[in-house]
């Protein structure tokens, strides 16, 4: 069932005013920036050339094994609805600077490295490498994950 903008606004009334305003501001006119979106590190070829051809609205927010919920602290997080729910993104395997495993996952790990463009120059900042579970790793039911700013999932 397709939701009208009014129905979406009514659903957002369940959220605190500050969060509701952020969501409405962030989502208004989002289609207009898709032609300016840069995917990956390439700016002149490859992923840098993607553009929106068509869009499709859907009721599904994510994979059927996951759902968005509000945590006890009022934070919106992902929760695995089933055992063996697949990770849909890299997920932190260890705490930064530590070798302590955060959650049990069935699957391989890999280092995730990146470069950030800042005032100092293009790709000049090198954040620390993160040890992550690869997408596709399996987690247990009820595992909660927060989507971090960089897109990496962090266990809650």
Tell me about this structure.
- The chain is α+β, with helices and mostly antiparallel strands and 156 residues long.
- The protein folds into two domains: 1-58, no CATH class; 60-156, no CATH class.
- Helix content is 12%, strand content 25%.
- The protein has two helices and eleven strands.
- The chain has helices spanning 5-12, 17-27, and strands at 66-70, 76-80, 85-86, 91-92, 109-112, 116-118, 121-125, 130-133, 138-139, 144-147, 153-155.
- A hairpin with a 2-residue loop joins β6 (116-118) and β7 (121-125).
- The two termini are 32 Å apart.
- The model has no long low-confidence stretch (mean pLDDT 78).
Distance between the termini: 32 Å
What share of the residues lie within helices? 10-25%
Give the C-alpha Rg.
18 Å
Task: Write the H/E string, N to C.
Answer: HHEEEEEEEEEEE
Q: Tally of extended strands?
A: 11
- Spatial strand arrangement across the major sheet: 1-2-10-11
From the helix content, strand content and strand pairing, which structural class follows? Answer: alpha+beta
Low confidence ranges: none
Query: Biggest sheet, in brief?
Result: 4 strands, antiparallel
> What would you call the shape?
globular
Strand content bin: 25-35%
Mean pLDDT: 78
Domain count, please report it.
Answer: 2
Number of helices, where a helix is a run of at least 4 consecutive DSSP H or I residues: 2
């Amino acid at each position: 069932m397709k939701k009208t903008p009014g129905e979406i606004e009514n659903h957002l009334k369940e959220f605190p005013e500050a969060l509701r305003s952020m969501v409405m501001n962030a989502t208004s006119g989002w289609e207009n920036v898709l032609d300016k979106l840069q995917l990956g590190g390439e700016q002149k070829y490859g992923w840098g050339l993607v553009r929106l051809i068509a869009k499709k609205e859907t009721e599904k927010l994510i994979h059927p094994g996951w759902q968005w919920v509000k945590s006890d602290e009022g934070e919106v997080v992902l929760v695995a609805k089933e055992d063996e729910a697949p990770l849909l993104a890299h997920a932190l395997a260890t705490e930064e600077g530590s070798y302590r495993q955060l959650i049990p996952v069935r699957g391989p790990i890999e280092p995730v490295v990146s470069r950030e463009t800042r005032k100092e120059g293009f790709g000049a900042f090198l954040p620390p490498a993160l040890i992550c579970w690869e997408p596709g790793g399996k987690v247990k039911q009820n595992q909660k994950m927060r989507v971090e700013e960089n897109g990496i999932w962090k266990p809650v």
